[in-house]
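Long-time lurker, finally posting.

We've been working with DUF2789 domain-containing protein (Marinobacterium iners DSM 11526) and I want a structural starting point before designing mutants. I don't trust myself to interpret raw outputs, so I'm hoping someone here can both generate the structure tokens and explain anything notable. Sequence follows.
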Amino acid sequence: MDTSAHTFSALFEQLGLPADNDSIEQFIRTHRLFSSEIQLHEASFWNETQAEFLREAISSDSDWAEIVDELNNSLH
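Top reply, 14 upvotes:
Generated this for you. Predicted structure of DUF2789 domain-containing protein:
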């Protein structure tokens, strides 16, 4: 079992997004969630598969949950 901590790069790869540092920084800058009432997986910029992955990562407290939570904090 892989118990290593996931990185932003690995998360972005998992979501099918460009995963280099510049692309990640640009994504965070351009996809801000200005309302705390919007949950990460509800954001309009995710496709259905991405949204489901993010929702499941948090709700099941998967090994992705910590880095997904960091992404959530970065976007809020």
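Before you design anything, note these points.
The radius of gyration is 12 Å.
The mean pLDDT is 92.
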